[in-house]
Amino acid sequence: MVGGSSCVTIGNGVRALQKELRSHGLDLEGEFQEAEAELNIQPCPEENMGPRTRLLMKASEEVGYDMRPMPKFIDFTRCDGCGRCALGCVSGAKWTSRNYVGDALRNGAKLETKHRVLEVLHRGGEVKGVKVQTPEGVKELESDLVVLAAGGIGTPVILQTSGVAAGTHLFADTLINTYGVVEGAQFGPELGMATIVDEFHDSEGYILSPFMEGPLDMLTNRILLGKRLQSRNLGRLVGVMTKIKDEPNGVVRADGGIEKPVPQVDVEKIESGYQRSRVLLEAAGADPKSIFRSHIRAGHPGGTAGVGRVVNREQETEVSGLFVSDCSVFPETLGKPPVLTIAALSKHLARRLTEEHL
Ligand SMILES: Cc1cc2nc3c(=O)[nH]c(=O)nc-3n(C[C@H](O)[C@H](O)[C@H](O)COP(=O)(O)OP(=O)(O)OC[C@H]3O[C@@H](n4cnc5c(N)ncnc54)[C@H](O)[C@@H]3O)c2cc1C
User: Fold this and answer.
1) How far, in Å, CA of 333 to CA of 304, rounded?
2) For residue 244, which of 13, 250, 299, 317 sits 20 to 30 Å off, Cα-Cα?
């Protein structure tokens, strides 16, 4: 859909890989500042934290974890805390990249939906346009400038079908959620990931954050098949997400097939996050015997057209005029929410392209 996965975020807006990108010659300080102002990023106010988040905040103080409000691109004057950010924001409180579409159209852009890019056309090392599948059939759109932004999986597929090597080094910011039952509690919906424990990111490779999945999420999460959850009331669950900086060991093939094994080093990070989540949940009043974890999954695919590998520091591929600006250009795993950093990178590229081409 227009807006891509920015439409399903939880509104978390944090800087990631700034130092690493600088070592590739990309100083994004100005772009980060601009994006933070534009997305109106602010730490989640205390009054927008739900009862489970507050419980975990208090528990983190007791066990000595440094839990802080999560920076969010949410307009808290409009957020009603329904906890359904990942289904799209019905109150329009959350920023998404769709916010730019109106301005773009007013400035002369033409938006073509239902156009699937099949390949990039190029000749003699120079980009010539894209071949697209439309409801009316396959078309060729001519251009001497193409910016791919089909995401960490879509972009390497297009590059490979266009004869540009890509698709290795796939990371995913692998995660699990750990849950415990607080007997006697009856929690309602609330904003997810309203706080973050970041202190283990650099040293141990993961973040922790309160995460309460709704019934719909649980349906897509294999836990529901487990006997333990079937007998439990979701309203008594408190959850903590462990999101790790995983090994960039995956591959996206030209046919869209994906391989992403979970190596021992990632298993150990997940296990460490799980143990710390247990400590937190027990301090929050969860029955230790009730604590369980979800299966491993992920929502941040990237690295598959990395800076220094597939694109240069100007985000240009070996094909002159063919650029990439999305999660696939990251040189290494973030282990943190990527949107703000993608926005900063895209601002950097946009500035250069408008200076040169407009
Ligand atoms: C449930 C969930 C919650 C998240 N919450 C957060 C959060 O709170 N904060 C955060 O920073 N990150 C969050 N993320 C991650 C974040 O949404 C993504 O990492 C980020 O949006 C990726 O942006 P992108 O531009 O790389 O790709 P995408 O957003 O995936 O955009 C790619 C677009 O290209 C389209 N496309 C793909 N192939 C083709 C093709 N061949 N032709 C035409 N179009 C194509 C896709 O349909 C899509 O619209 C979350 C992710 C999930 C799944």
Assistant:
1) 11
2) 317
